[in-house]
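Exercise 7.
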Amino acid sequence: MLKLDLVYTVAFAGIILFLGYGIRRLVPPLARYNIPAPVVGGLLVAIAVLIARGSGRTFVEFDTTLQSPLMIAFFTSIGYAASLRLLKVGGPQVAIFFAVSTLFAVFQNVLGVLIALTLGLHPLFGVLVGSVTLTGGPATGLAFAPLFEEAGVRGAATIAVAAAMVGIVSGGIIGGPIATRIIERNRLRQARAAGGPAALAETPESAGEVVEARLHEPDVRPPEGEDEEGFTLLKCVVLILVAMWIGSWVSRGITALGFTLPAYIGAMLVAAVIRNLDDATRK
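Solution. The predicted structure, written as tokens, is:
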């Protein structure tokens, strides 16, 4: 069995990621239907691991030390995308999408409970493999796993990770092609090519605000002689780390109040605040 330490695990993940990009180039339909490269490469590894374990063997063991901090960093980057200026572009459609998503989250739980009862399982098993993981993801599932264990769902943490991974892979394989069909049916590629993101906005006024917010000149410029792209990348990394740092205190405060939420929530909220302050001050 091959044991990978922290550095080797991250390196292996990087290789698999670029393998996914390479396969997408060799198999054009994967790119055309927006199948994510991480799903392509990761699915190959998952299948290999499944086959090995099916025969009673383990061919590789990963070091998951960085799993939590990297996951928090990822969700922090999602928080930085939460711009109220951009939200205005969606208009009523955003509210409709939110309502539909909420209904589907409830439906996931109802259907999960019914299937669990049919199979003779604890009804909360159906909730754990419902919106907790399919809407919330692996971090949310792991955050609530101890509570499900206490309520009688044995192996809740393992179940949560498995359900979330199935959801992520299914979302990539099923969601990508469906989104592609919608994009092509509504000719959104042509609209974007003709006028950029602003062409998809409902009104010229809101489009102008968004473009202005996206393209404004930053006040913090790289030092003389420094590479601008490298300086921008450095700023991004530092801002993510700062949001994670402050967010850890926010998460502790939430926990102290008696609420059980994923570890990334604090960093995600802090990142959203920083993003919207930046939109307002243009710093």
